[in-house]
Amino acid sequence: MPLLADLIEKLQWLPGIGRKSAQRIAFYLQKLEKAKVQELTDAIIRARTGLKECGICHNLAEKDPCDICVNPNRETDKICVVEQPSDVMVVERLSEYKGVYHVLHGVVSPINDVAPEDLRINSLIERVKKQHISEVIIATNPTTEGDVTALYIAKTLKSLGIKVTRIARGLPMGSDLDLADDTTVARALEGRSEI
Hints:
Blueprint: H1 2-11, H2 19-31, H3 34-50, E1 52-53, E2 60-61, H4 67-70, E3 75-82, H5 85-94, E4 99-103, H6 121-130, E5 135-138, H7 144-158, E6 163-166, H8 182-190, E7 193-194
Parallel strand pairs: 3-4, 3-5, 5-6
Antiparallel strand pairs: 1-2, 6-7
């Protein structure tokens, strides 16, 4: 069945989806009403074509600048630096952090040939220079690459006299922020320390 095999192969492009999961999803989609499959397809296409990168924080948004960056109720003197747009959703779900964000779109990784200039670090430095920032909270994942990225940013911003903190280690080493439960992320934010 070439059509089914092709669908299973394409589903494996998704993160965390192996062959068995792809098979389950493919067979589930075959049972789903055609209208529901079309809704899913349309939602994927709308999101892929309608979302853009915010010119300020680099988060994904429907408009530029994004709703968070233009919200007058946000504390614009605090910037939470995260690796990916999905990490913004994790922190926002807590409804405790009231500052703004900066999305790096990755981490420094010499093994994968990702240097600081390949990320959105330079635009973070420009933001900090232009705006009155009291604190930069680094919320990169507790991995070797996340730590290297955090130390690089901290060293760069400290030379500008900016307070730089790192979220607490409530997250286990090697885990991802978007996989942590809300309580763990909240405690990590509350227990942040200066780098």
